[in-house]
Design goal:
With 318 residues, this protein is of the alpha+beta class. Helix content is 46%, strand content 21%. The protein has 13 helices and 12 strands. The strands form 2 sheets. It has a 7-stranded antiparallel sheet.
Amino acid sequence: MKIWNTEELPEHEQFAYWREVLCEAFVTLRPERPRGQNSRRFPSRVTAHPLSTINVTTVQSKAHHVIRGDSEIRKSPHEVYFVNLQLAGRCRYETEGRETIVGPNEFAVVDSTRPYFLDFIDDWNVLSFRIPRHMLRPLLRAPDCSTGICVSSRQALGQITVDFLKSLALRVADLPPEALEPLAGDLVNLTALSLGATEEARTARRQSIRRGLHLTIMKFVETNLADPQLSATSVASHFGISIRYLHRLFEESDKSFGQVVLERRLLRCADDLGASADGRISDVAFRWGFGDISHFNKSFRQRFGSSPRAYRHRQQPD
């Protein structure tokens, strides 16, 4: 992991240092401060992690412009794509005669071999994934028309890809070495599918979609554990897939869909019981989606080896 932080420098040196940071962490770029930005202070931070042949970078900065023109391309003719996932703030992209605005939970791609202009309208936070051009370009159905296109989490494939990118960036420092190359491949495949992949790529990349969809479903389950109506039927309906296909997604893991939901609910209940000695145990169970107290008590005892009451008592300080 490598970290650059402008706040370690005096205010009058921060933006000049930021120019060096962008060129070192990415490719040769020309940042420009917008007119009217009078403060010399420019707090910005970059954190970079390698992921096989891909680099995963988290960037936080103030509103400004970033330019890669012909002169910058000549200085560093690296052939890479950058997949930029907006976490906060908005960015206006101009490249290949296209213009689009990308907001939170949306991403767009730029090609380092082609000029582009990024106008970060607001203070911003972005996950940027550097992909070698030879890995992604052959998978794209129309590669020259794929840059500067906004992909949103409101779209089905967009949601799967955005969730995958976020999860990968969050855990990249803890991944075992043997997982890096397969996950890098999934990243490239899902990006291509979101932008429009070739027929050959779509046929070959089904496993990446399955893994990405499984991740998105798990996130949905975590968010909706308190809903007593959460079920295989409701989840399959939400994602527009069959119940049979939903169960197939969980076949590769150690637990079925129902077992996963039960396990996550029991863990939430255990956390609440351990955190407080007050309140009725039944309220805790209902809070996390259990509708049958006897079923809850039996499941809790099987999972933790004691009744909910005994577990709560054991977790409290003497």
